[in-house]
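Input sequence (98 aa), recorded before submission:
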Amino acid sequence: MPDSYPYIISNNKIEPILSRVRSAAKPDRFGRETLTTWGFTASNDRAMVAVLKGLGFLTEAGAPTEHYDRLRDPNDWRYVLGERFAPCTPTCLLLTRI
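Predicted structure, token format:
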């Protein structure tokens, strides 16, 4: 089990950022600059990069993976989110009970 998990303090930007992932052109590298270009400039918004990496949507270098491609698919994005969250769900539930 990892010592820590990526997280985002405020959840009000998760849906708008994921919506932008679906509507914007796929970047060669996804990082803080991408979020800033998209208008997400708050310091908390930057945490989404670590969350996307932790869920396997980005490589450690920030390159989009095949899961990122599925996240952009209007018919598949909900399924890939569920698939990527499933491995951490038991741990996440355990952490909320501590």
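Checked by second reader. The two ends are 16 Å apart (CA to CA).
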